[in-house]
Predict the 3D structure of the following.
Amino acid sequence: MTRRFDILTLFPEGIVTYLQSSLLGKAVEKDLLEFKVHQMRDYAEDKHRRVDDVLYGGGEGMVMKPEPLAKAIEQIRKDYRKGRVIYLSPQGRRLDQALVRELGDYQELLLICGRYEGIDERILEGWVDEEVSLGDFVLCGGELAALAVVECIARYVPGVVGKAKSLEEESFAEGLLEYPHYTRPEEFQGRRVPDILLSGNHGEIERWRRREALRRTFEKRPDLLEGLKLSEEEREFIEELREKRR
Ligand SMILES: C[S@@+](CC[C@H](N)C(=O)[O-])C[C@H]1O[C@@H](n2cnc3c(N)ncnc32)[C@H](O)[C@@H]1O
């Protein structure tokens, strides 16, 4: 069944261009994915197609009006079967692989891209299921965050990424960062590919990769190792790395 993404935005052009390119565009051609990008102004109620207004209580900036948003959400989701409405926001749950997999369970996602100071609070209360953040920083709008959400979910739709196994091995898939990669030539400006990768010994290569994944997770993101199920041998390896660091 085709996975559907609706994106509600004031700036559809850049989004459409991105969605038509690369793997995502190919997945649309294969009917694996469907993208509908909606111009928020099309749901405005006045002749100037206005979607923002001043803040009650005073203060700088504008807020996105509730009427166009509610109308858009109701119309877009009316034929959803198992869908979810997401507002991209720096105040939302931070996007990570666990959230990507959770959102991947929904057949349809409506992603709302805010601008200005954000959207009227009443839309969050009555029309939005979840707020999702790209990280602890503030963007000018939700568009980049929406594309990030789409792309990382789409990669898990069967058929979108050529080799499913490559997804299983990626960073975060098993709670670890992925092992290092090399391609030809064997030597580049004095730096050689590790001999083990040229050995043809697949068992040893697998073992090396697992250890390298552990090593780089220990070095770059030690927080990921907390609570992770490791074998006795792997725990000892991490202990060795800790000892070396002391
Ligand atoms: C300038 S921001 C508004 C920030 C808001 N006034 C606040 O302080 O929470 C405008 C829009 O960009 C989007 N945005 C900004 N930072 C984001 C982030 N880290 N993750 C997801 N969306 C973000 C949201 O849709 C937001 O409505």
Q: What stands out?
A: The first strand starts at residue 3 and ends at 9. The beta strands are 3-9, 33-39, 52-54, 62-64, 83-94, 108-113, 130-133, 187-188, 191-192. The pocket of S-adenosylmethionine is lined by residues 88-91, 113-115, 117-118, 133-135, 137-142, 145 (CB under 6 Å).
